[in-house]
Specification:
Blueprint: E1 4-11, H1 14-18, H2 23-46, E2 50-53, E3 83-88, H3 94-120, H4 130-138, E4 142-149, H5 153-168, H6 204-209, H7 220-227, H8 237-241, H9 243-252, H10 254-267, H11 295-301, H12 308-315, H13 317-322, E5 329-338, H14 340-344, H15 350-374, E6 378-383, E7 386-392, H16 393-414, E8 425-434, H17 439-454, E9 459-465, E10 471-477, H18 482-495, H19 499-511, H20 520-533, H21 556-578, H22 586-593
Parallel strand pairs: 8-9
Antiparallel strand pairs: 1-3, 1-4, 2-3, 5-7, 5-8, 6-7, 9-10
Length: 594
């Protein structure tokens, strides 16, 4: 029997991960898929195969299962991508190996992941739910595999890629065999029935622990995502959003922050226990308590006795009087490598691909450190060239730039023999949304920003969705240093340009035609911009002083595009500037005290 190249993929991926209402849903959904892929990688190695992607060998600790965000030694596990490539040696039947791998993955899913959740959530589950639970669990995992003789590595890899791509265009449509009928559908997946009891019959302690609202219904898979880990392991998105604000408070009004921590401890506010994230120690409680309009909800959801408004006035207001209002927006960062397939097609041997895989693993590990240790963020997933993370707004741009620079260094090292124009680049999208939006909505913003960045490749795109309804998007290639451009725009708004002037120019854009071949419209637009900027305070500005490149004689479409991009960049910069925390001055403190 000859040597074979084997490709295994597991799913579902995107739709499954996006079905999330809380941080724990999103993180654990991504984590458990990584764990299923880890089980598949472990089974491949145990069956005698050599892993190519990821490039892990027998005995590597990254093949050991990990149910928590970090291992016992305090180090986070490597995220394993849902696509595994392996070389099967002569004498090993790939068909038998695939069956063994599939059996081990499903066994780990049923016994290692879902069974413990079902056991500890018995007082939440409806009676006689075993058949419904088993069917929902057993029909989730999508396991696909294909193999080809490994005579020529490049040809074999293209062959298995084509086979898997073709199979993914097919869909299996099976009927539910076990349904209760006349029960609500899951709040996260409308295709599955709830497995929960009626709200009044649920154990109140478990309801509070796993934050299950009265009107919320969960299917078996959604309950596994919600209750698969311990609540204190997950950093609420509001804590991520306020990480910089809390850091500034700790350095300027430390006593007021310490008093609030003591009050939260005594009241029983939900804790956050992540020793691997030092920045969470500044305020190891649910930071929703920093928002006055959330006081009542926090007390209700967490079963805390007393008057929330009275408690907030006594313990939270002293801090809020000293600091600028917490800015309730967070950044969802999504990054993805460009032209990865083109680079892989240049790899002509197994060892070349394994070296490339090790480089990607190095990037993934360093990306976690960059996000979580250097920029006060929380990483959801980092596998290969993909990164998904949440960050406080003041750190989002710097983190994106650091990730791009790191990816460039790794690719330069991994693709040394390849021409520079063939090496993969990184496109990064930053979606900015309100912390009270659903996790799926925040993730959708990040994905949309990533797609915007992918339009040019090797780019950064920022998308802002204000809760009031306004949306702004802007992108630029990394060659044009988009981070520096946004920072200069923040400086212009602070020192030179009133925001009302930006809105005035935006209003002029709306009054002019969206497209026209009449060159006079280009002249009118340029003059309108110059007129608006010429009346700023006691002086005047010209477009070039605020990084707006305009000139007479170019097509109206290009002029309009430049002005629209400038407006979007300035208004996005305004959002980023408003997120920077500061201590109130004396007059502001007096107003805040009223």
């Amino acid at each position: 029997m000859s040597e074979h190249l084997l490709l295994v993929t597991l799913g579902p991926v995107q739709d499954f991960i996006v079905q999330a209402r809380r941080t724990r849903d999103l993180w654990y959904g991504s984590h458990l898929l990584s764990e299923l892929c880890r089980a598949a990688a472990r089974a491949l190695v145990d069956g005698g195969a050599q892993l190519i992607f990821p490039a892990l060998d027998r005995g590597d600790r990254e093949l050991t299962a990990c149910s928590a965000p970090v291992r016992q030694d305090g180090q986070p596990p490597l995220s394993i991508a849902n696509k595994l490539l392996a070389a099967v040696p002569p004498g090993v039947d790939p068909a038998q190996l695939v069956r063994a791998v599939r059996d081990q993955v499903l066994t780990h899913w049923r016994d290692g992941i879902t069974a413990p959740v079902k056991e500890k959530c018995q007082r939440l589950l409806a009676p006689r739910i075993d058949d419904v639970w088993a069917e929902q669990i057993d029909t989730l995992v999508e396991f696909l595999a294909t193999w080809a003789p490994l005579n020529n590595y490049s040809e074999a890899r293209r062959s298995v890629d084509r086979a898997i791509a073709g199979r993914k265009h097919l869909r299996d449509f099976g009927l539910w065999q076990h349904v209760r009928g006349a029960v609500p559908k899951s709040s996260l997946d409308g295709g599955r029935e709830t497995v929960l009891r009626a709200p009044k019959e649920r154990d109140p302690q478990l309801v509070r622990k796993y934050r299950i609202a009265d009107g919320e219904q969960l299917d078996a898979v959604a309950l596994v995502k919600r209750a698969g880990g311990e609540p204190e392991q997950f950093v609420p998105v509001i804590n991520i959003a306020q990480a910089c604000w809390l850091g500034r408070a700790d350095s300027t009004v430390a006593q007021e922050l310490a008093d609030l921590r003591n009050a939260c401890r005594k009241a029983g506010i939900s804790r956050v226990t992540r020793d691997d994230l030092p920045w969470t120690a500044l305020f190891p409680f649910d930071a929703s308590i920093l928002l006055p309009n959330r006081w009542e909800t926090v007390f209700e959801e967490q079963g805390i006795k007393g008057d929330p408004h009275s408690w907030g006035r006594v313990h939270v207001r002293p801090l809020l009087r000293q600091m600028s209002d917490p800015y309730p927006y967070v950044a969802c960062l999504v990054a993805d490598g460009d032209h990865m397939g083109r680079a892989l097609n240049r790899l002509s041997a197994v060892e070349d691909h394994r070296a490339f895989s090790r480089a990607l693993s190095k990037f993934a590990a360093t990306a976690r450190e960059t996000v979580e240790q250097e920029h006060h963020g929380a990483l959801v997933y980092s596998g290969g060239d993909d990164v998904l993370a949440f960050l406080p707004l003041p750190e989002a741009l710097a983190c994106a730039k650091a990730l791009n620079q790191m990816f460039e260094r790794v690719m330069t090292s991994a693709c040394g023999p390849l021409p520079a124009d063939v090496r993969p680049t990184l496109s990064v999208g930053i979606g900015i949304g309100h912390v009270m939006e659903g996790m799926g909505d925040l993730l959708a913003l990040g994905r949309e920003a990533e797609r915007e960045a992918k339009r040019d490749r090797n780019s950064l795109a920022v998308l802002v969705a204000m809760r009031s309804g306004g949306r702004r998007a802007w992108r630029a290639t990394w060659d044009n240093d988009p981070v520096d451009a946004l920072r200069r725009s923040m400086s212009h708004l602070d020192e030179l340009l009133p925001t009302r002037k930006v809105y005035e120019i935006a209003s002029a854009l709306r009054r002019l035609p969206t497209d026209s071949l009449d060159q006079q419209w280009a002249q009118i637009l340029v003059r309108e911009v110059e007129r608006a900027l010429s009346r700023v305070g006691e002086g005047s500005l010209i477009p070039s002083q605020v990084d707006l490149d305009l000139e007479y004689g170019i097509e109206y479409e290009k002029v309009r595009m430049r002005v629209a991009g400038w407006v979007n960049r300035l208004l996005i910069a305004r959002v980023l500037a408003r997120s920077v925390p500061r201590q109130r001055n004396r007059s502001e403190q007096e107003v805040a005290a009223i």
